[in-house]
Amino acid sequence: MTPERPHRADATDAQVETPEDVSRADAPSALTDPGSAPLYAALDLGTNSCRMLIAQPQGSQFVILDSFSKSVQLGVGLEASGRLSRSSMLRTIQALRICEKKLEKHSVRRMRLVATEACRRARNARDFIRQVRRETGLSLEIIAPEEEARLAVISCAPLVSPTTEQLLVVDIGGGSTELVWIDLSAVAPHDRPKAIMRLHMGFDAQGEGAVARVVDWISVPLGVATLKDQFIDVDDDAARFALMSWFFEENLASFSPYNAENPREGFQIVGTSGTVTTVAASFLNLKRYDRAKVDGLQMTSDQIDIVIRDYLSLGPEGRRNDPRIGRDRHALIMSGAAILQALMRIWPTDRLSVADRGLREGLLYAQMSSDGILGDGPYT
């Protein structure tokens, strides 16, 4: 499959439809009584994982009340067959039953439950969605690559530096990788995070005044699971890693900023994914994961390369037993590292901002912003 791109050259021309269940508010209003605030849920069913957050708005942000995360490997065998397997669907439905019980326990009424690349590609995805509805009562929505990219971007708004004029947000998923290039040079430094948050309305719908301009975006149908499957027949660990990194870079050739001359000053890459947070945890030598230490961490290219070389020296068996990587991640970490290394190699920066946030947080921000329930103030 070829990368998904906007129909016209400038991504600011792309149109985004508002889902029927999302209401728009003319003007946001601050929450005056946090105890009365409704609960919101966001579920992200990807190629590898099923993850959900339940949250309550508080001021300009939200507080997580409950969460769920499980590796369901929905996309196993999809590359070869074009279909979701029966076993992967059963695993996923079991996980979704747990999610449904949590939603019922908290009496959540405002939610978005979305599926991404595996369901976009599978020929039997609609049958699977109907089966999920019958067996769990949950209504999954398959979202387009642009919306997935947009939601990842707004989740990372709090990590954008006031000095950033050119921003690249990278979301490495299980089945695809989304990249969004944003020009913030026309926006006042103190207003840059808010300008990015306004992208929840769409890449072209931002209101009046100086805006964050989406120069280009791309969805590459290669994530940690799908890239791994492309080279599963290569036995040599180092050779497989090099081939994966090269192949991913080849798929970025049509992304317009790839060959652009961009200054090193004022450029920031924000990476959001299990790959990025795992590399960060390994760099910090965390035996037990600590989000407070990982989210917002700045890593240099050299530091990332040291971690990746360490992964290669460990080999498959060593990675399987490394507590910093974890049992759910060890089989996919090298394909994710290949993507990350390619990205750091081809753009004018030697630093990466690590984001332990992504599609679920973006879904929450978008719902709350649409309802006008978030107050003014800094996002965190």
Describe the structure.
The chain is an alpha/beta fold. The protein folds into two domains: 31-143, Nucleotidyltransferase, domain 5 (2-Layer Sandwich), CATH 3.30.420; 151-359, 2-Layer Sandwich (Nucleotidyltransferase, domain 5). It has 13 helices and eleven strands. It has helices at 78-81, 86-105, 117-121, 125-136, 145-155, 192-197, 224-230, 237-250, 274-283, 291-294, 301-320, 333-346, 359-370, and strands at 40-45, 49-58, 61-71, 110-115, 141-142, 166-172, 177-183, 213-220, 267-272, 298-300, 351-355. It has a six-stranded mixed sheet, with helices on both faces. α5 packs across α13 (359-370) and α11 runs antiparallel to α12 (333-346). The longest helix has 20 residues, at 86-105. Mean pLDDT is 86; it is low at 5-32.
